[in-house]
Write a structure and sequence with these properties.
By secondary structure, this protein is mainly β. The protein has two helices and 13 strands; from the N terminus they run ββββαββββαβββββ. It has a five-stranded antiparallel β-sheet with strand order 10-9-13-12-11. A two-stranded antiparallel ribbon has the order 1-2. Keywords: Metal-binding, Zinc, Zinc-finger.
């Protein structure tokens, strides 16, 4: 039985090296390749993007972003939706936050759909929610208040300030 290998850099960081011949595909979408992470179910892998846009899923370790947990909590009805982008029933689709359009998160990302991380701070508590928009609803209504954009690790970052709450929106773009 072959073992996974790890490389340690001179700085002490550890990088996982894939075992040759082991096929890893995302169980939530038909897209091949990309940033795959293990789940809490042995031999089951997911794209980071796919996990982010499933509300039932999260990462056990925020630093390593693995394993992805909660895959067994995704409603079975999500696994029978047809993706409007790739036209396949494979894995679990996510829904536009404005309508009943379903698509795979990776398909939406590759098609240029708007995908956002909404971070709300209310009563000193941080809450975050991933939302996405179909091609029709791609441009959400902007919140009122002062806003500015800033680049953060390759993501477009928009911060909106209002009188009642602070809201940060990270929009994921290519």
């Amino acid at each position: 039985m072959a073992l996974d290998m790890f490389m340690i850099s001179p700085h002490g960081s550890v990088k996982h090296v894939r075992k040759p011949g082991i096929k890893r595909d995302c169980c939530l979408c038909p897209v091949k390749g990309g940033a795959l992470k293990p789940t809490d179910v042995e031999t089951v892998w997911v794209h980071v993007t796919c996990a982010w846009f499933q509300p039932e899923m999260c990462f056990a370790s925020d630093g390593k972003m693995e394993p992805a947990v909660g895959i067994l909590s995704i409603p079975s009805s999500n696994f029978v939706k047809i993706c409007v982008i790739c036209k396949q029933i494979h894995g679990s689709c996510t829904q536009c936050c404005k309508c009943s359009t379903y698509y795979h998160a990776m398909c939406a990302s590759r098609a240029g759909c708007r995908m956002e991380l909404h971070c709300l701070e209310k009563n000193g508590r941080q809450n975050s929610k991933m939302v996405s928009y179909c091609s029709y609803h791609r441009a959400p209504n902007p919140d009122t208040g002062l806003s500015y954009t800033n680049s953060f690790r390759g993501l477009l970052c928009k911060e909106v300030l209002s009188k009642t709450r602070r809201k940060v929106v990270l929009a994921l773009f290519h």
